[in-house]
Structure prediction request, 268 residues.
Amino acid sequence: MPEIEVLLSGYTFNADQTRMGLSTVALIRGRTLTLVDVAHFGRRNMLVDALKKRGIALDDIGRVVLTHAHWDHSQNTDLFPNAEIVIHEKELEYTRNPRAGDFATARYFAETLKGQKVRAVNKETELEQGVGLIETPGHTKGHVSLLVETAAGLVCLCGDAVSDAGTVLRGTPAIIFWSEDEARASVKKVLAATQVVYPGHDRPFRVNATGTIDYLVEAPTIKFTGILDYKGSTFSVDVALAENRGTTIHPEARSPSAAPVASQPAAH
Prediction:
């Protein structure tokens, strides 16, 4: 049966100077070594090192599944010359003309895949025995997730369809760029299939029958460092994870039955 391992954990941080999303990158050890999302350039060396630590060469990766095309999930596909890049065709279509205010989608994204073996899917697909791709739109137009049959049961690798454990309580991911109604339906779809979730920007967790959350790994502490002035003075600070935030919805993604929203999408 396939096995799942998190190579890079997912987090989200906001500052008054930047928005910083760090996506989960997971490895599926099945018939084909598969990566689910590949992070952004700032984590490129970390991803290479995480694979090397496990004795896996870049050439060994046979498949990369992009849950969606946002920059923090998708920039390192070129590291894997032998990999089939799996993405939904609606996602590729959208990247060529993203909505105004969608800061997370690069209009040139499709061009970055040129020369690679791209498999654009248009329906729910079994990638191999025990690994199935399902459509989970809402956060983006062509978002997908993976359902994986493991020895411990069925697991969903959700990307940002279920961005964090707070999604279970809200019924929505942290950010919605495409459709609030579709995002809510996708959350219900995932939780109807399994109670074990690997989210895009949080730790893996289990949803109990009472609706409470049990994290499957301990909370990390993240260290930030920086330079303060021309003398090279530096600072360092440890930051613990904060409580889950609410949902930010792109104005064009809001449900027609919902009240108007004034805010623009916040950090990924």
Notes: The domain at 3-253 is CATH 3.60.15.10 (Metallo-beta-lactamase; Chain A). The chain has one domain: 3-253. The chain has a mean pLDDT of 92. The first strand starts at residue 3 and ends at 8.
